[in-house]
Prior knowledge:
The complex is a heterodimer of chains A (about 200) and B (about 240).
Chain A: H1 5-14, H2 22-35, H3 37-53, E1 55-56, E2 63-64, H4 70-73, E3 78-85, H5 88-96, E4 102-106, H6 119-122, H7 124-131, E5 138-141, H8 147-161, E6 166-169, H9 185-193
Parallel strand pairs in A: 3-4, 3-5, 5-6
Antiparallel strand pairs in A: 1-2
Helix pairs in contact in A: 1-2, 2-3
Chain B: E1 6-20, E2 24-31, E3 35-41, E4 61-66, E5 71-79, H1 88-104, H2 112-126, H3 131-145, E6 167-171, E7 175-178, E8 189-190, H4 191-198, H5 205-223, H6 229-239
Helix pairs in contact in B: 1-2, 1-3, 1-6, 2-3, 3-5, 4-5
Amino acid sequence: MSSPSSLDELIEALRALPSVGPKSAQRMAYHLLQRDQRGAGRLARALAHALEVLRHCERCNTFSETDICQRCANPQRDHSLLCVVEMPADLAMMEQTQLYNGLYYVLMGRLSPLDGIGPRELRLDKLLARASDGAVKEVILATNFTNEGEATAHVIAELLAARGVRVSRLSRGVPVGGELEHTDSGTIAQALVERRAL
Amino acid sequence: MSQKQRVDQQPGFVLHTHPWRETSLIVEVFSRDHGRVAVVAKGARRPMSALRGVIMAFQPLLLDWSGGGEMKTLVRAERCGGQPLLAGRALMCGYYLNELLVRLTAREDPHAALFDAYARAIATLGRGEPQEPVLRRFELALLRELGYGIGLASDSDSGAPLDPRADYVYIIERGPVPLPEDAGDLPATSGQTLLDMERDDFSRPETLVQSKTLLRMLINHYLGGQILQSRRVLKELLEL
């Protein structure tokens, strides 16, 4: 009982999505073809269009339809501040604060020595070139507070410091509105280590 | 072999994690009494998971898991004791130690003494002490604990005690022999260095330099051609 090859091909193609195995891919294919053909058409067109027009912004490395994205081209933003984040989702979170008016650089990943993801895989040379363009006065490292994020921050900090760029790191500690009683001990321990004078 | 077993309150460290399915993690753990085990941390990648901030490398943990197959199921994980997070170069050294354990130890082969050596190394790195002696001590402890019998006290040809002022060549799986006249570019190690290593004394700069070369040669041999990614990444960083 073999299924049509176009169906097989669709199922196989859906497996390109992260954590989608053969079973889930099959379920998605049947759903799109049987229950939501309009949605399937939209998905197909949106994917084809995005593939065609999206590229990485030359300055911030995030997805953009133009060589330089709108944010990087905006003269209202502070071009002397450059915030380094791991993923576009992190950039969106920083924007939600409505407190930061500088520019960004999106790494599209993080250093992970055990997985063999090093400076070459992360294209750190591109960030170094971006940060030493003369306009950038301070680089704010907003990589995650995981070991990999910390390693990434450390490496970038060393490389930029060697080039005379001022580097800072997001601070960490007890969350806003947090009560010590309900905060995990790791966060409190780190907040104690990094306490500041008043 | 495959009967259900439950392990409670086992001291351990996370060596490495891989994402698994939508919200879970496969965690490579180095535990004191069960050696290196792989556990699934179900839901550990959900935003509100209690495991999220706990499953971190370089932190002493107490772990409960169950299951008899190669892949266990993590039941609980909690921090035990306040180890400061590794930062900067110490963090890169930590990755190197983790990779050595992942590549050179076998699954479920307990090495309590090696576990203690690892815990000490991580604690010392966390205190920001010089890193080179920590790495050398751990490398030596690892090779010895894995049963590679690294003899550092006597000439493996004659059995005579080492002369601190003489130079030796370390022959893999045999031990130090006096440096031959026609040694060419064989790396020479002084008797003093070998004796210092035997006594766990890495205070002499020459001991640090020579023991690094010697231990690297031995580790590369036992890696059998596997490339250490953490070492490659560090090398690439120095080239930037």
